Amino acid sequence: MKDVNKILDELQVLYPDAKCELNYTTPFELLIATILSAQCTDVRVNIVTDAMFKKYNTPEAFNELSLEDIMQEIKTCGLYKSKAQKIKETSRKLCEEYKGQVPDTLEELVKLPGVGRKTAGVVLSNAFNIPAIAVDTHVFRVANRIGIVNTSTPEKTEFALMEAIPKDRWSHSHHLLIFHGRRMCKARNPQCEICPVKNDCDYYKRRE
Questions:
Q1: DSSP 62-112
Q2: What is the DSSP string of 167-197?
């Protein structure tokens, strides 16, 4: 059985500044930024939203834009056509059913077009300070490599991590695992030799 708290403590020493790297000032801005972040870097998303949110940053504003207008704003993000559709439909739904307010429960968030459990988890934990674990490709890879969980899908990983990690550490552990995945435990050529959790890592032990 892994000492998960020990692993998280070591990652916290390595990444004392681990936090959401998407720029936002409201739950709605974070929701849009997270939708845009699919298969796109946070750096690129922040460049796009920095300009866009100065002009439009409410569901009402996006609801009034045409699909073509939204596409033009987010064109450099990749998958911009489908993302524009999701942003347009989500904005409309927020205006029509939620009085322009982003809901603060998982059940309601995942009813929004383009919002899955990962996006909902990001919004809940960062915008509303509600404990959640959002499983992106980094969290999925790192958690399974180390052996904190042994799962085959992001959703199974989320539930397994919720079991393995104390609830008061859920939200921050998500950031620690992302930082580790981006900076050291990369998909290709992970830097195992200098990793502080290598002695607790199943992947490293298999490589020896």
A1: HHHS-HHHHHHHHGGGSSHHHHHHHHHHHHHHHHHHSTT----SHHHHTTS
A2: GGGHHHHHHHHHHHHHHTS-SSS--GGG-TT
- pLDDT digits over 143-162, tens only? 999 999 999 999 999 999 99
Neighbour count for residue 18 (Cβ, 10 Å)? 19
* Residue 206, both tokens: 């298999």
User: Cα(88)–Cα(98) distance, rounded to whole angstroms?
Assistant: 15
Please say whether the structural domain 27-127 has been given the CATH code 3.40.220.10.
no
Q: Where in the chain is the domain with CATH 1.10.1670.10?
A: 4-18+133-207
Residue ranges, comma separated, of all CATH 1.10.340.30 domains in the chain are 27-127
Residue 200 carries which side chain, given as an amino acid letter?
D
Q: Residue 208: its pLDDT value, please?
A: 72
Confirm if 137 and 180 have CB atoms less than 8 A apart: no
Tokens at 27, concatenated: 């739950």
Cβ count within 10 A of residue 73: 22
% of residues, the chain, pLDDT over 90: 97
pLDDT greater than 90 at residue 6: yes
| Residues with catalytic function | 118, 136
Q: What is the CATH number of domain 4-18+133-207?
A: 1.10.1670.10
